[in-house]
Amino acid sequence: MTPAARCSAAIEVLADVTERRRPAADALKDWGLAHRFAGSGDRAAIASLVYDALRRRASAAWIMGADSPRAVLIGSLRLQQGLAAPTIAGLFSGERFAPAPLTETERERVEAGSLAGAPPEIAGDAPDWVLPSLRAILGDELLPELRALGRRAPLDIRINSLKRSRADALASLGHLSAAPTPHAPQGLRIPIGADGRGPALHVEPEFLEGWYEIQDEGSQIASLLAGAGPGETVVDLCAGGGGKTLALAAEMGNRGRLVATDGDPRRLAPIHERLRRAGAEAEVRTPRTGRARADVLEDLDGTVDRVVVDAPCTGTGTWRRNPDAKWRLRPGSLATRLSEQAAVLDRAGRLVRPGGRITYITCSILPEENDGAIAGLLGRSGGAFAVVPSRSVVDRLLPGLADFLRFTEHGLQMSPALTGTDGFYVATLERS
After folding, report:
1. Is 7 labeled as catalytic in the residue annotation?
2. What is the pLDDT of residues 310-362, one digit of tens each?
3. Rounded distance, CA 237 to CA 297, Å?
4. Beta strands 256-261 and 283-285: pairing type?
5. Number of neighbouring beta carbons within 10 Å of residue 310
6. Which of 7, 238, 313, 363 is catalytic?
7. Between vectors from CA 191 to CA 189 and to CA 197, what angle results, nearest 5°?
8. What gap in Å lies between CA 70 and CA 420, rounded to an integer?
9. pLDDT, tens digit, for every residue of 129-168?
């Protein structure tokens, strides 16, 4: 496919995303199935165009004076890729498979459009209703952080210390041009191309042999801040596909008892193969479905040293990777997540022994889901829990990281602009 034809395809996918309010990944998959002539390179290039347009949807519409899929794509080519008006006009030529030629108004907008005077929700490409909450945590750094959330995310991997040291892996992965991550001691960062694509890491022999897992550095840091160690009983309460379970097993050196579960048994499906590949030991407890759902963790109540709660959340901290999610986010979604967070924190509270700890993690930058959730548990528990100062946790486990974090009332916040990671929140509670 020509670059112009890829633009036509991207407009088609963006229209599907907008009209049906569906995830971009689903729309892209359906487009690919309906256009089997498109090769893998074409599909990847179209996906990059679509995701870049979604990253800059509000600002692109602002400079173009219209919010149609065509206008948003044109504006994103100008803002995200920095293409000049003649280059964009060359793509929008009206020739075979190319989008219709630029109108005079579109050409003027591309040449003279500016974000000067645009409000923060436009300049930062974010839903306006979340700005008061984000301003409360980000303050004067609101706009820089929003812009950082609009950039492409890096490609990070975590070296599996059960099989290799980072130094050994780095020497063996030279063909990937990997470099150590700035903060996570087992992390490596893989360069991505101008189109946002990285190498197909999941087919590399080293991946198949369990040397590494694909995991954002922020997620790696959050797992380390749980402080899990050999000989402990640890429960990963919202294990999902097992990314943090694998990291916890490596930190424990497969010595101790690690239990992984999740409220949705479907999310646990990949964990068994991932544990096998990594050589990691964990007991997976799958919830039963049906009307009489038994509590699969009841026998552990009051005995667990550490409970890791990677809570269900809005995912506002992952907008770099999932830019379409921010435009689907609604206040009702936040209310649902707050209820789910309260439920998993209360369950964690029953599991942990006196003197044991809960590590609460979200990939959100909304304070309602973070400090707000912790405050809720403190209020409901009647003094049974106390917050462990996050700076002391960081200084003990990852010295030097504190300068790249925002410390909040009850926890810490990572962010793209400050930490260079997704927007993870971590808080630690201890049972009295």
Report:
1. no
2. 999 999 999 999 999 999 999 999 999 999 999 999 999 999 999 999 999 99
3. 9
4. parallel
5. 25
6. 363
7. 120
8. 32
9. 999 999 999 999 999 999 999 999 999 999 999 999 999 9
